[in-house]
Automatic annotation (TrEMBL):
<dbReference type="InterPro" id="IPR050072">
    <property type="entry name" value="Peptidase_M20A"/>
</dbReference>
<keyword id="KW-0645">Protease</keyword>
<keyword id="KW-0479">Metal-binding</keyword>
<keyword id="KW-0862">Zinc</keyword>
<dbReference type="Pfam" id="PF01546">
    <property type="entry name" value="Peptidase_M20"/>
</dbReference>
<keyword id="KW-0378">Hydrolase</keyword>
<feature type="domain" description="Peptidase M20 dimerisation">
    <location>
        <begin position="168"/>
        <end position="256"/>
    </location>
</feature>
<dbReference type="InterPro" id="IPR011650">
    <property type="entry name" value="Peptidase_M20_dimer"/>
</dbReference>
<feature type="active site">
    <location>
        <position position="77"/>
    </location>
</feature>
<dbReference type="InterPro" id="IPR017150">
    <property type="entry name" value="Pept_M20_glutamate_carboxypep"/>
</dbReference>
<feature type="active site" description="Proton acceptor">
    <location>
        <position position="133"/>
    </location>
</feature>
<protein>
    <submittedName>
        <fullName>Glutamate carboxypeptidase</fullName>
        <ecNumber>3.4.17.11</ecNumber>
    </submittedName>
</protein>
<keyword id="KW-0121">Carboxypeptidase</keyword>
<dbReference type="Pfam" id="PF07687">
    <property type="entry name" value="M20_dimer"/>
</dbReference>
<dbReference type="InterPro" id="IPR036264">
    <property type="entry name" value="Bact_exopeptidase_dim_dom"/>
</dbReference>
<dbReference type="InterPro" id="IPR001261">
    <property type="entry name" value="ArgE/DapE_CS"/>
</dbReference>
<dbReference type="GO" id="GO:0004180">
    <property type="term" value="F:carboxypeptidase activity"/>
</dbReference>
């Protein structure tokens, strides 16, 4: 493995990616950014990707040689709408760089490509880049799982707040609870109605009781009713659930399936279920131990591991049984917040660590 990394070039590559805005909902914008990433990758690695279309949405795959042993996972879509650069341009201030999508997670893509460029042997290395991660990976999930199966390790290029690697992510489940009642005049004969809003209140309290240590059950969006003088015949709410283990995710799912109406004449329907399986600590433990050892050998800052509630595509790779280490991307902070930034000097450090991990895993 060569250790030659040009940090100034890494920053120039990052600027090109950040200044090509790529909001998830705008497929054409993500395609433009995919073209920019392809040009950068061609210059760095001499390889062009396979463009994989899923439901008319493009994703990119660089298979550098042979059957996948190590899978690198990233995304180029961001949460920032077109025009964000007009008020918040890409800027470098000392050792920090900022701009929409710089931290989450375009710097991680740059670091991965430069890491790959230092390897003398690329056999078994595959880089997968999606364009819908911020939407929950609706078109890419099955493809990610397909590419991951059989790999020895998956390294996820998501950002790393204050340098901490993500060794555990909660699983995500999403539900919609739909309540039916019966309309009536709220002033003349409310007793003839079945109040869906009251039933909704009972259901919110019921699902709140599904929480326990480590599991969050959060009602989010509520709707219901038609006019101020009508007993509502319909209501509903959505629920965000985060759980640390597959067993806990299944417990909550069964509890949602057992919901029943409280008011006579009311009905309850539940849609949804688990969206992302958890990345359990057992999936990352061995890879994290390797990373700590290699970071010490490289003279890098001591690594920390953290458990977080947010999900990533690493949940999918871990869910199919592949050892997964997340947070291998940029060091910085403020993901999804205006002012997100990366630490420039850490780009080469993390690229070197990723390259060392790839070689270490392939050596076996």
């Amino acid at each position: 493995m060569s250790t030659s990394l040009d940090v100034r070039q890494m920053v120039r590559d990052l600027e090109r990616l950040v200044t090509c805005e790529s909001p998830s909902h705008d497929v054409k914008a993500t395609m433009r950014c995919a073209d920019v990433l392809t040009e950068i990758a061609w210059r760095i690695t001499g390889r062009r990707p396979e463009v994989v279309s899923r439901q008319d949405r493009p994703h990119l795959l660089w298979r550098f040689g042979g059957r996948t042993t190590v899978l690198l996972v990233g995304h180029l879509d961001t949460v920032w709408p077109l025009g964000t650069l007009d008020r918040w341009p890409f800027e470098v201030d000392g050792d920090l760089a900022t701009g929409p999508g710089s931290f989450d997670m375009k710097a991680g893509l740059v670091q991965a490509l430069h890491a790959v460029s230092t390897l003398t042997d690329l056999d078994g290395v595959t880089l997968l880049v999606t364009t819908d991660e911020e939407l929950g990976s609706p078109t890419s999930r099955a493809w990610i799982e397909e590419q991951a199966r059989g790999a020895r390790a998956a390294f996820v290029l998501e950002a790393s707040a204050d340098g901490a690697l993500k060794v555990q992510r909660k699983g995500v489940s999403l539900y919609e609870v739909i309540v039916g009642g019966r309309a009536a005049h709220a002033g003349l004969e409310p007793h003839k109605g079945v109040n869906a809003a009251v039933e909704l209140a009972h259901q919110i309290l019921a699902v709140q009781a599904f929480e326990r240590d480590g599991t969050t059950v959060t009602p989010t969006v509520l709707s219901g009713g038609t006019t101020t003088n009508t007993v509502p015949a319909h209501a509903g709410f959505t629920v965000d659930v985060r759980a640390e283990t597959v067993a806990e995710q299944a417990r909550v799912d069964a509890a949602f399936g057992a919901l029943r109406a409280h008011l006579p004449g009311a009905s309850v329907e539940v849609k949804g279920g688990p969206n992302r399986p958890p990345l359990e600590s057992s999936s990352s433990a061995e890879l994290f131990a390797r990373a700590v050892r290699l970071a010490r050998q490289l003279g890098l800052p001591e690594l920390r591991g953290v458990a977080v509630g947010g999900g990533s595509d690493g949940n999918f790779t871990a869910g199919v049984g592949v050892p997964t280490l997340d947070g291998m991307g940029a060091v910085g902070d403020h993901a999804h917040a205006e002012g997100e930034y990366i630490v420039i000097s850490a780009m080469a450090e993390r690229a070197a660590l990723l390259a060392a991990l790839i070689d270490d895993v392939r050596a076996g």
